[in-house]
UniProtKB/TrEMBL annotation, chain A:
Protein species of origin: Marinomonas spartinae
The entry's keywords: Cell inner membrane, Cell membrane, Membrane, Phosphate transport, Transmembrane, Transmembrane helix, Transport
Keyword Membrane set for record: yes
Transmembrane segments: 41-64, 84-115, 127-151, 180-204, 301-323
Superkingdom classification of source: Bacteria
UniProt protein name: Phosphate transport system permease protein
This protein's GO CC annotations: plasma membrane
Compartments in which it is found: Cell inner membrane; Cell membrane
From TrEMBL, chain B:
Start and end residues of each ABC transmembrane type-1 domain: 67-270
Pfam family membership, one: BPD_transp_1
Topological relation to the membrane, as annotated: Multi-pass membrane protein
GO biological process: phosphate ion transmembrane transport
Residue ranges of the TM segments: 20-42, 62-92, 112-129, 135-153, 189-207, 250-274
Record organism: Marinomonas spartinae
Protein name: Phosphate transport system permease protein PstA
Length: 328, 281
């Protein structure tokens, strides 16, 4: 037994237990079929992306024909009068994603630096697993936690005090205005931040791991502190990759549906206050799609989907290009 | 110590403290979320979850129809997604290496991997639900398959990439055809890794809710007919959690715990698999 185990397992599995496969596997016909099946499957992946675009465009056509480019600029979303404009949803998407990125990026970077540079060796692996666990929790659970536990606490201990604090400050009183009900765009942004944080952190960790050891060691050798090595060696070396990971997180935040639907409050209007209820593109679709009885309503919702498709495609493509540059 | 050195060490201390505080903050959120899920989930946990149907408001019941529906949806989705993802991954690593088509497919696949899942739901709604005129389990499985395929493609390519070329060359030297080399050498050597990819894909799609909203919808009753709307855990959780009835909310937490534990178990299994795959090379 020990003799066998000393050979590489891979060698064993391919050569050790050899069985003669069926004869047709050797034939030229099978060889060709298999190759074309593989190419077909690869083309199918391309077709999925193409299919997204074509089918969403067809579905959105009635709305695009009726509203034209005004669809993007109009802030009027009213199923009763059959007027549909995407601006409230676009604004809500950008505001919540903006809050999420602002909060998540520094935290994610800190965790990535802690795991790769500062943490004791024995802690690095468990910490990595904890971050991946956070990433694996389905978004609907973030939504339930956000609605039933985070929002009430946020209203009592954060929203209320902030609203009172800035009551008489000119600009800030408009930004932090409204009853402290917990649900709204700020809450959605914070929950989104918790959700995208592990994705950003784990990509950043991989990116920071690509910094050659000798670069860091030469920094330490001239007496640089941990922070100076991070600031002067790691960040400049990984700039593109770190930006790529931020775009990847942004792509997730823009399209996240279930968690946001639970806590954003579902209101189709634009307000200056980040504590006000709002809507994102994805939450509008999730909330209204099953209740869209007129053709123009459902077509407008699909037009929102098309918009989301285009925005996220651009963001994710940028992310990929940045991340691919470092891996090659 | 002179002033410069002191300032530098102070900056270092501040940054280390902030980094540690940030890590602890995130871990606190993790503990909070998991704690809430475990507490609420286990308070609502009872054996009848697996034997009784989802109830009308105010009555007690279980999740049997939703569990069975979810298993069917995920099962059919993986039945479709596995061969397609496997073959596409095979193309990327075995046939297309270095070609422009492979780089385009790889790029598109990476983008699809992170695309909002709600778009898969809208897409399938457009091509299956709208033409057929009704929500159906098949449509739900199609939407889940679209989300699962990129996961399988990515891991298949990565894992086959780990197979040493000398093994392929040895097979070619014996006169094996290209497809034989792939089937008998590449697949066999990478099979643990490829299985991991399939498990990860199952973990990825079992909690997906948004794509099912427009495709399979939900069903309060026992349903195993894939050509109609079918009960499933994620949409059931969504609908029950959004309602004021305490019984429904308790069931939603029980369902949420069930899904998360399943995903956790799948991740652990894939991690163990991956470790044994890596130790082979």
């Amino acid at each position: 037994m020990t003799l066998v185990n000393n050979r590489t397992k891979a060698h064993d599995e391919t050569a050790g237990e050899f069985q003669r496969p069926p004869r047709f596997l050797n034939g030229e016909a099978f060889n060709k079929t298999f190759k074309w099946l593989s190419i077909g499957a690869a083309l199918f992946v391309l077709m999925i992306l193409g299919g997204f675009f074509v089918s969403l465009t067809i579905g959105a056509w009635p709305a695009l024909k009726q509203f034209g480019f005004g669809f993007i600029w109009s802030s009027d979303w009213n199923p009763v009068t059959e007027k549909f404009g995407a601006l409230p949803a676009i604004a809500g998407t950008l505001i919540t994603s903006g809050i999420a990125i602002l909060l998540a990026v520094p935290l994610a970077f800190a965790i990535a630096v802690y795991i790769t540079q500062l943490a004791p060796k024995w802690l690095r692996h468990p910490l990595g697993i904890a971050i991946e666990l956070l990433a694996a929790i389905p978004s609907i659970i973030y939504g339930m936690w956000g609605l039933f536990f985070f929002a009430p606490m946020f209203a009592d201990y954060v929203q209320g005090p902030i609203i009172n604090l800035f009551e008489n400050v000119p600009v800030l009183s408009t930004i932090f205005e409204g009853p402290a009900i917990g649900i709204g765009m700020a809450t959605a942004g914070i929950v989104l931040a918790v959700m995208i944080l592990p994705f950003i952190a784990s990509v950043m960790r991989d990116v920071i791991d690509t910094v050659p050891k000798r670069l860091k060691e030469s920094g330490f050798a001239i007496g640089a502190t941990d922070w100076e090595v991070t600031k002067a060696i790691i960040i400049p070396h990984c700039r593109t990759g770190l930006a790529g990971s931020i775009f990847l997180g942004l792509g997730r935040a823009l399209g996240e549906t279930m968690a946001v639907t639970f806590i954003i409050g579902n209101a189709n209007r634009i307000t200056a206050s980040i504590f006000a209820p709002g809507n994102t593109i994805a939450s509008t679709i999730a909330n209204e799609f099953q209740e869209a009885y007129t053709e123009i309503h459902s077509s407008s919702l699909i037009a929102l989907g098309l918009l989301l498709f285009i925005i996220t495609f651009i963001v994710l493509a940028i992310a990929r290009m940045m991340l691919n540059r470092i891996s090659t | 110590m002179n002033a410069v050195v002191r300032r530098r060490h102070f900056a270092n201390l501040v940054s280390r403290t902030l980094i540690l505080a940030a890590t602890l903050l995130v871990l606190a959120f993790l503990v909070w979320i998991c704690g809430v899920l475990l507490y609420e989930g286990f308070s609502a946990f009872k054996p009848t979850l697996f034997t009784e149907m989802t109830p009308p408001p105010g009555e007690s019941g279980g999740l049997a129809n939703a569990i069975v529906g979810s298993l069917m949806l995920v099962g059919v989705a993986m039945f479709v997604a596995t061969p397609i993802g496997l073959l596409a991954g095979t193309y990327l690593n075995e046939y297309g290496k270095g070609t422009w088509l492979a780089s385009v497919v790889r790029f598109v696949n990476d983008v699809l991997l992170a695309k909002p899942s709600i778009l898969a739901g809208l897409f399938v709604y457009e091509i299956i639900v709208a033409p057929m005129g009704s929500f159906s389990g098949w449509a739900g499985s199609a939407a889940l398959a679209i989300i699962a395929i990129p996961v399988v493609v990515r891991t298949t390519e990565d894992m086959m990439n780990l197979v040493p070329n000398s093994m392929r060359e040895a097979a070619y030297a014996l006169g094996a055809s290209r497809s034989r080399v792939i089937l008998s050498v590449s697949y066999r050597a990478a099979r643990v890794g490829i299985t991991t990819g399939v498990i990860l894909a199952v973990a990825r799609i079992s909690g997906e809710t948004a794509p099912l909203l427009f495709t399979s919808l939900n069903n309060q009753f026992w349903s195993t007919d894939m050509s109609h709307s079918i009960a499933n855990l994620p949409v059931m959780i969504f609908q029950f959690a959004m309602n004021p009835y305490p019984d429904w909310q308790a069931l939603a937490w029980a369902g949420a715990l069930l899904i998360t534990l399943t995903i956790l178990a799948l991740s652990i299994i894939s991690r163990v698999f991956l470790r044994s795959a890596n130790s082979q090379h």
